[in-house]
Amino acid sequence: MRVVVVGATGALGGELLAALDETRLAIDSLVPIATERSIGTDVEFQGASMPVETTLDAVRGAQLAFLCAPASASLEATRVCLHAKVPAIDCSGALALSPEVPLVAELHAPGTPPLDAPLLALAPGASLAAARVLGPIARTFGLSRVVATLLESASAAGRMGVHALSEETIALLSQQDAPDPPALGHPVAFDVVPWIGEIDEAGASAAERSFAAIVGRALGGVPIAVTALRMPVFCGEGVSLAIETVQPVEVSAALELLAKQDGIELGSAVPTTRAAAGSEAVHVGRVRRDPTRESGLLLWIAADGVRLTAAHAVRVAEARFARV
After folding, report:
1. By the 8 A CB rule, do 155 and 184 touch?
2. CA separation for the pair 285, 298 (Å, rounded)
3. Residues 146 and 264 in one domain
4. Is 301:10 a contact under the CB 8 Å cutoff?
5. What is the tally of structural domains in the chain?
6. CB 285 within 8 A of CB 269
7. Which of 13, 57, 277, 302 has minimal CB crowding within 10 Å?
8. How confident is the model over 85-113, as pLDDT tens digits?
9. Residue 148's beta-bridge partner residues?
10. Domain region containing 141
11. Which tens digits make up the pLDDT trace of 198-238?
């Protein structure tokens, strides 16, 4: 199998390559693709150094493409893949709201779409973590309402976000001026930023609109209200959830249900975003009743959104080619 990774030098692409190192897919050759800024760059795969291609022409002839670049670049790669008849899995979220592209938020859940479509979209990062936890609850007890507080790390903005936080932190601790203008459009070190992305006329940020729409699609239209915050940490995502179920549910029943799900970990300790770093699982804790709602539950999710998305993409690819 010839596999292409578009956006191979980014944070998500790097995690995908690491996940592919352990895959059951029979990969004969791997082609990493990035922008011209990566000319002369190599990436590591299965103990070998692979030169990075800088043109999408390298997609042609592949049996599978993973799209890990930012949205605009992933959309351009999508057009090339369709023209070249190369199946593609979009890990960027660029296609997650396209109704004609199947969305794979959970792999083995009832209602999972067929995996042999030319394009498959994944729910990325925190939206994937939330959908993995809320999906079983929605199918078993029904969901009438979700209120989420999303806490994203610098890594959710890619390597640019990690570099921005690092440079600002070093500058401030050294009593120097932080980079101006800030790489993310606003300072991030030692601060909590109550928006991520452009804010629309209704006051919703881009991250909030995306999270609500993608998770809502994955759950079949459940209404979702979300506030997204940028946290001054290097990796990991946290989501605080207040949910209202159609059928009353005890905390013990919710815990029993979640404990049976693949890719979800319930621990005796409350999971932190730092503890979730490097994990392919979604960590759940602080599950308790909402005292303001008769059928309400409160819970906390911690996940490494980049690693989670990469691992999910590889599992989807393995399942797809197992059916061919």
Report:
1. no
2. 10
3. yes
4. no
5. 2
6. yes
7. 57
8. 999 999 999 999 999 999 999 988 888 89
9. 226, 241
10. 128-305
11. 999 999 999 999 999 999 999 999 999 999 999 999 989 99
